[in-house]
Amino acid sequence: MNNNYPHMLAPLDLGFTTLKNRVLMGSMHTGLEEERGGYDKQAEFFAERARGGVGLIVTGGIAPNYAGRVHFFASQLSFPWQVKHHRKITDAVHKEDGKICMQILHAGRYAYHPISVAPSKIKSPITPFTPFALSSRGIKKTIKDYAKAASLAQKAGYDGVEIMGSEGYLLNQFLCKRTNKRTDEYGGEIENRARLAMDVVKAIRAAVGKEFIIIFRLSMLDLVEGGNNWDEVVSLAKWLEQAGVTIINTGIGWHEARVPTIATSVPRAAFAEVTERMRKEVSIPLVATNRINTPEIAEEILASNQADMVSMARPFLADAHFVNKAAQGQRQQINICIGCNQGCLDHTFKGKRSTCLVNPFACYEGELKLEPAPVTKTVAVVGAGPAGMASACYAAERGYQVTLFEAQEQLGGQFNLAAQIPGKEEFNETLVYFRQRLADLKVTIKTGHYASAADLATFDERILATGIKPRMPSIPGVNGANVVSYQQVLRQEVEVGKRVALIGAGGIGFDMAEYLSEAHESATLDRAKWLAQWGIDVNYQQAGGLTKRDDSAFESAREIYLVQRKSTRPGKDLGKTTGWIHRTVLKDRGVNFVIGASYEKIDSQGLHIKQEDKASVLEVDTIVLCAGQESNRDLVADLDGQSLNYHLVGGAELAAELDAKRAIRQAAEVVVSL
Fold it and tell me: Catalytic annotation on 515?
């Protein structure tokens, strides 16, 4: 048994096959499924994760028929001619000694097309189309389509299938009264609502035989009104075991639930307790999931018998070699997923290929590569924020001799500030990773050093990752004693009063509002407090696992005005899958949103504004500037003057909203091009 994380790395005997460890790479839709050459790209993507040591991989969702597609051009497995394409994926994974299951996902009313179907004709709040209610004949055909998809998956070389029965997709829609209003044998009591799921499992087992993995992703916590109660969920799990399921995976929350389930502000392993409760009810292996992102969290869950396996999806975008590094005792070398959603889920919901903020090579394994440099060069990188640290690491990986200059005494740049925001504590993990990586690659680091053109003159290549400077808006009185920058606040260089106006309601303004309104320790670090804040009842006193939210969680440390010039909704440009969370938190804390405001002046009375020609004064103690930033290009003129070439990356290249995803990606692209 491996001494590093022995429970996580222990094999799992399924009877007819053995998994080499207890780590399941959870299903993610990456967008590669629908791209030209997508099967080849998926083969490289999954093979890299198999090479990295994961015990069992689950693909993104594949529809069993046309109506079940998530959108018109989504993937479907229904025809024999498709088998050869999937064989590319399974062969690549098996070559790396991995195992892989194909997820079968029928979108039901979540389908983004006009021929969607569901148990009842009830529109989803997150799609524009009202579904058709499935007829009895349609249900029978759907069951056959599931079985056919599983049979074709088996022929394609998959080791099993995962049946998606959670997150509010078709089978989940049949299982819950919220969306199932039928009066036939598929509606009413739980035995009838479960009939389709059980028929699907039985049909698949009959089609694939006994020695084929069937995972069922069961919604153990719906987090919506009209969801199932605990007794119903337990009954479902027992019936699934009897029907021939090999493994039960945990599903948490419907996509339409107004409760965060995987964002960075969700505490680690927030829902493992639900899987632990179920473990007492069934004898087949159970998988814990959601916000498990470090080997120690995985080990703790398994060692305490909360689950038999752990599912991690996005952590394998962040680092394909997570498991191998853990096995080798290289915890600090693991590029930890910070749960930001910016490169993965936000991309998915925009129809873009997924990737990862902290790992721009994810899903680009065959297109963005750090090949060994043909010629040794010396490379200077100026600025040690995310863009600079990434540039230095990537250049050193190519074999260049790298020196990293940083004006501050500490590496990390804006990430040091971001990590102080409640709910963004995970950003510290990226700093740990890059600092360790720089040390391992023997990058020369010069902190507390303002690099000059003279310092850089002898290098073959120069990368400027000098970041940004806060923009100073031209408001009369902006230099007053009651005006501070967001950087000064986060560096704790200034005192902030009890009544505050924030100028600028972009990402920085929202972060500052959360930081300054937090009355206690961040709820992300206190699971019980976080569950109470969002009204999650893991004891299942009510159906769906919801309860009344704790009013004390809405207490604000300050009276805050979040002010913006635009008349659009505050936070409109925040992340697609996380913006609503930030807006909800600030609304709950009573933050005042002031839109369509022009800034007239600042004086000892406060911030003078106009809205539609109506003047008013926000009588506050402190005004915090969050009004954007400008590129820091202080070095550029000197380098140009000496005809020294350079590359701009990150904020130095474009000072839009702070965008670490773009900055780190740009660092990779620049280094690859050297």
Answer: no
